Amino acid sequence: MIQAQLSPVILDNEGIFKYILIRREDNGNFTYFVRGFNKYEYHADNFKHFNKELKNITHDKNHQFDKNTGLIQLGQGVVYRCVGGGRVEHSHKNQKIFIYGYSQSYGQADHQITKQMIEQHLKYPAENVTWSNDGY
Questions:
Q1: What are the pLDDT digits (tens) for 112-132?
Q2: Which residues neighbour 49 within 8 Å (Cβ) at sequence distance 6 or greater?
Q3: Is 92 a catalytic residue?
Q4: Which residues pair with 79 in a beta bridge?
Q5: Where are the alpha helices (DSSP H) in the chain?
Q6: Is the dihedral of CA 127, 131, 86, 107 positive or negative?
Q7: How does pLDDT run across 72-115, given as a tens digit for each residue?
Q8: Which of 34, 91, 102, 121 is most buried, by CB atoms within 10 Å?
Q9: Does the reported pTM lie above 0.85?
Q10: For the residues of 57-93, what is the DSSP string, one character each?
Q11: What SS3 state is found at 103?
């Protein structure tokens, strides 16, 4: 199963950087993924990174990637859609993350979903993962 091979949350350990929220859509079922790396200046670069991860796993000949619309289409109706972005201020050492802002390319992510993903997969205490819709 492809989604079992993809880590749900991958964020750089320290710093302030852009992140994206990706939704996998498959026959009415949704799964989310979070990606954010210091090395990328744009949200779209994070999405390109995710696309490379996916291509390395699927080897799907029907794989179609559109960085501008935030869409990856695979065969049999499986779609990965960038549903927004923002920024994170992350301190792995202190197990704290502040999620905020939006992506000019993909709009604002649902930071509540991102918060839940981080709490569940990074095992950070709920009080250490905060978010705001303010800021860029």
A1: 999 999 999 999 999 999 999
A2: 35, 37, 40
A3: no
A4: 25, 73
A5: 2-5, 43-58, 111-122
A6: positive
A7: 999 888 999 999 999 999 999 999 999 999 999 999 999 999 99
A8: 34
A9: yes
A10: HH--TT-EEETTTTEEE-GGG-EEEEEEEEEEEEETT
A11: strand
Collapse the DSSP code of 23 into the 3-class scheme (helix H, G, I; strand E, B; otherwise coil) and give the result: strand
**Cross-strand partners of 20:** 35, 85
Contact 47, 70 (CB under 8 A): yes
Q: How far apart are the first and last CA of the chain?
A: 36
Tokens encoding 117? 């993903």
**Annotated catalytic residue: which of 43, 63, 90, 92?**
43
- CB 136, CB 101: distance < 8 Å: yes
- d(C-alpha 112, C-alpha 93), whole Å: 22
DSSP code at position 130: E
**Beta-carbon contacts of residue 135 (< 8 Å; ≥ 6 apart):** 87, 100, 101
Which residues are within 8 A (CB) of 108 and not within 5 positions of it... i.e. 6 or more apart? 84, 85, 86, 101, 102, 133
CB-count burial class (<10 Å; 0-12, 13-18, 19+) for 46: buried
